[in-house]
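I have been asked to look over a protein record a colleague put together. Alongside the sequence sits a line of tokens, each denoting a local backbone shape. Please read both lines and tell me whether the tokens look consistent with the sequence. Take the sequence as given and treat only the tokens as open to question. I have pasted the whole thing underneath without changing anything:
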Amino acid sequence: MTNYIREMSDIQSQLQEIVPRAAIYKGTNKSIDSTVHKTEYVTYPSNLSHVLEIGTASSEQKVHFHVSGNCLLDGKNSYFSIQLKTNKWTSCLSGDISSLFKRLTISLPSSGNQILEDIQEYNVLSSMIQYMSGSDEDLETNWYSGQSSMVGNTREENMETSRLDLNWNAGTDGWRTYTFSLNLSGLLQHSLYLPLFLLNGIKIELTMSSALEALHWDPSNENDWESVLRAVNHRFPLSEDDIDGMDGSDVISQQLKSVYRRGDPDDASNSLTYTIRQFTYHASVIWASSEYMDRLREGVNSSKGLSLFFNAYRFNTIQPESPYVQFNFTEQLQNLRTVLMCTLMDSHRFAQNRHSINFFSSHIDNFTFRIGSRIFHRVDNVQPALAYVNTLVAMNRFNRYRANSVTFKNYNRERNVHIFNFERVIGDNETHSGLDTREGKLLRLELQFKDDPLLELKRKDSSVISTLRRGYSYNEVKVYAFLRFTRIYIEYMY
């Protein structure tokens, strides 16, 4: 067997001829009953045979799953489950459960671990897309994945919900169960069933984030039991008089441990950690008829092979050395659809008391894309309304009368996400709709940063009363840029 992967080719017709939508080939008369014998869930455990504790160091610890069988994978209806526990009462996830995942890789073990899909900085990208795609009501509904804790969690006054998510909802001894999908994966979220029997199985590998990236924790919240009480739930039905009348912290601690089903807090001097266990993939698999599977094999055995189109991502980071930056993307892609950008603070990225992956401040003044002699329209972020609408248009959400979690206020303050669309027809999923950056036609990004972080308050005599900080300098941030493009996997068997 030989196989390879490339970005695009002129074989789009194969998709309609060989790979079915749902379980049926286009143009056939077969009913689903004659094609699909049954659908069932099969559990695939991870390689974890014990609990895995992850600390503040970037250890690149990985968890993987081998998913195989003489069947097809219905990725859209498959999901993961995991149990999570932190060593701090008042810690919380920076975002939802995807905060734990630094990188996602899907490969073919039977082909020398050939990589099909690779998403770096998965946790950052996930936060960007979730903020721009779902409303607060949508996020609150998805409590099982921890998305409910994302509503307003970058503000200190709203982090109670995030802390409660890991404490109030915890089971025995502080373990909290989450269920989720890897929604950014073009393969696992494909509208077509993935033929595991032809691929000889796939390997799903997740690189875990450090505790500093995945969690937010302020040591001052655990100075004493009263601090714990207020940080975890300031609405707890105890007044100051009640606390004074409880005969000390011992009584408070016993009641809190009973309500939250946790043991004593860890020593505040110990570093932040989280622990995972029972990490499982619950796969919805399709057992198809032999006739159906034989037809797929015929496609693989043909001269054209079997092809599968899906969306993929490439990651770039930009470190500005001046307020004005020109950056060339070196990726040669036949079908670039969108570029997604945000800025993150270097000082926040690996700080335990900061939201490392989802606090996107407004550092960019404006930006422009160029390719060859073509100049795309400039996006002005000084007027946030213009930048925000540009992002909504790029996501095909403008004039949809459906809110997301981003307001005008928090877009300019903490959710400043920029998405630029290069499709010839926005929202059209035709395979060849995007921008071609091959053959020397590299995409260039021109960025102008805001560089006025200090504001002096002066008296009439020009003497300075105080200096206020209203922003951050360009040399304190990095730009995270994700290129979304169409990829094609082709498999041959001779």
